[in-house]
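Researcher: Structure for this, please.
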Amino acid sequence: MKNHIIILLSFTFFTVTNPANKTNSLNKKLIEKILNTKLDEYPEEGVVRANFPRTDIKLKIEGYDLDPFMGLATWVAFQKGKKPGIEVMIMGDTVLLEHEINTAMSTALESNIQVTALHNHFYYDEPKIYFMHFSAEGKTEELARNIKKVFDSAKNVKKIKKDVPTINKINGSEIEKIIGVKGQAKNGMFKIVIGRTTRAECGCLVGKSMGINTWAAFGGTNDNAVVCGDFAVLESELQDVLKTLRKANIEIVSIHNHMIQENPRLIFLHFWAQGKASDLARGLKNALDQTSIIIK
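Model: Predicted structure, token format:
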């Protein structure tokens, strides 16, 4: 009798702690219905995951035909949330052609999905592809519908040919007035650089001339200008800066780190845009206003 009791208690303990029960708290059928796909289950981690191979992209890496199995798939994973009122958290990655990136990013930002990185995974890829990483927390149905919108938004985006300037003849005085910082002119181009500081792993305080800066370089003419540059932002500032830049039709080119183990931690985002120099400057100034960067 004593042995029977021990066996019964052991079995009860196993069924309570068995990790296979973790996915039971996720509404798998609802997610599958919204995303219109079957989910893979990882019960030991309490995760369900949807994969969408980019079979429409015939990708070559240095001439090698890359099968989607080799990392050419958009995906999203769901896991039960831990905070009060948070049903699930999601993380994932989208495979995007260059002209699809900013449409997908704007859709994500407008849907309260955080964009956490944008970069390449390959060299010498034809066509050129990028990977946009994301995360979010909230209600299962809302997040599933929102991420479906992000995935769908990249479909059928057409590449637009632009009338790019052929000469550089920028008058930087208006740019200086809008942004509120002095710049430097060279051969008809104009550039501003705004520094901030962080402490490197060695304990050294590093700043503007060590590369801890936000900058913008203008070319073309004031009526038809191009601008490229980089924002150095705190992690807490990233989403608001991205939203503000996208509202100004400034394209995000990459999001990544330039350092490791710095304090405070900084994220760098590179951008590109074309338009009137004054409009571009206002878009950048509005984004700067979302940060604690001190203009001087």
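Researcher: Any notable elements?
Model: The chain has seven helices and 17 strands. The helical segments are 2-17, 28-35, 101-110, 140-153, 173-179, 238-247, 277-288.
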